[in-house]
Specification:
Blueprint: E1 2-4, E2 15-19, H1 21-35, E3 39-44, E4 69-73, H2 83-90, E5 94-98, H3 107-117, E6 121-125, H4 137-142, E7 150-156, E8 168-176, H5 182-188, H6 198-208, E9 217-218, E10 223-224, H7 225-241, E11 243-244, E12 247-250, H8 264-268, H9 270-273, E13 279-281, E14 287-289, H10 299-303, E15 309-312, E16 316-317
Parallel strand pairs: 1-8, 2-3, 2-4, 4-5, 5-6
Antiparallel strand pairs: 7-8, 9-10, 11-16, 12-15, 13-14
Helix pairs in contact: 2-3, 5-6, 6-7
Length: 318
């Protein structure tokens, strides 16, 4: 059985969306399944605009409704610079700009947007399904429904099979969907799946959806945005089950606590670079990998000069 929690939180805000391309359309269509009454306007931005634009004035919509939150999805290049002005004209103080390709919004362009935004709170979500509450009223209201996936999973023991891990999933409830709808899709595919296989089948179904994020390596994440998005749904499944069957693990006795390596594992981890606490530096300086959020990318293994990290494929409870 599959269930999606809708209208489980009181929400009273006005959302205006700037959308472009296939990616933008998918996001808009999925947000509308839950927040259609909150969406006060949608402006479709041309998808074949030049990357560099000198005069942005003609691209700013003439009629803009009063809004609390502006969301930009699928915009590429200089056209993103209209977002702060659109927010000002609508009265919005909160903005989410989704990044699904590192060429879409490079660091320099993000800095220009932040400088122009002044007192407008701008969040760059890379990937969009990694968005978490940040202490902003309207962005946090939005993340009650969409952002970093969150699930509840119920399962039953197979009759006549007492083995731990042989249980079958009987019900998945989506508490927070990915903005693109991938979490809902994956959850519908998990019914009847053995719990030990759930995180791996979730990863497979994630690619079947498919995710529209870039497969090119993002220099800031040290991995493809598509891969990091996939780690989010796996993490949601693992946390709902309270265990994983695959994770990188650090040998604490062999870890040198940063001596001679400056915690290289921390810098190469895509999950850490995406703002998740996957690798934790403990009080004694030794590193610890959270198995719930580890994506098993193995980048830390190749980076560790002491060889103290390995992939463990066995049941690990949280």
């Amino acid at each position: 059985m599959f269930q999606k929690l809708n209208n489980c939180f009181p929400i009273s805000m006005k959302i205006y969306i700037l959308s472009s391309g296939k990616y933008g359309k998918r996001i808009v269509n999925n947000l509308a399944t839950t927040l259609s009454s909150e969406m006060v306007g949608i402006h479709e931005v041309e998808g074949d605009l030049p990357e560099f634009i000198e005069d942005l004035t003609p691209y700013i919509p003439e009629i803009l409704p009063e809004s609390d939150l502006v969301i930009a999805v699928g915009l590429k290049g200089d056209i993103n610079l209209i977002v702060p002005e659109v927010a000002r004209k609508t009265g919005a103080k909160s903005v989410i700009i989704s990044i699904n390709d590192h060429t879409q919004l490079p660091p320099g362009l993000r800095m220009e947007i932040e400088e122009d935004a002044l007192d407008i709170n701008v969040v760059f979500a890379k990937p969009f399904c990694g968005l978490k509450p940040i202490g902003d009223q309207y962005i946090d209201e939005f993340t009650q429904y969409f952002g970093k996936p969150e699930l509840e999973i119920e399962f039953d023991q197979i009759t006549g099979n007492p083995d731990e891990g042989a249980e079958l999933i009987k019900k998945v409830t989506v508490k927070r969907d990915a903005p693109c709808g991938c979490t809902t899709f994956v959850s519908q595919e998990l019914e009847g799946v053995p719990v030990r296989e759930a995180e791996f089948i979730a990863a497979e179904k994630f690619h079947n959806y498919p995710c529209l994020a870039s497969m090119a390596k993002d220099p800031e994440l040290n991995d493809a945005i598509l891969h990091v998005a996939g780690y989010q749904i796996r993490e949601a499944v693992k946390k709902a089950l309270n265990f994983t069957c695959k994770s990188a693990v650090i040998d604490e006795e062999a870890c040198m606590g940063g001596d001679g390596c400056e915690h290289l594992c921390l810098g190469v981890c895509p999950q850490v670079n995406a703002g998740n606490g996957t690798i934790i530096i403990q009080a004694d300086g030794k590193a610890y990998i959270d198995p719930a959020s580890c994506g098993s990318c193995q980048l830390c293994i190749s980076e560790c000069p002491y060889g103290c990290i390995e992939i463990v494929e066995e049941k690990m409870d949280f």
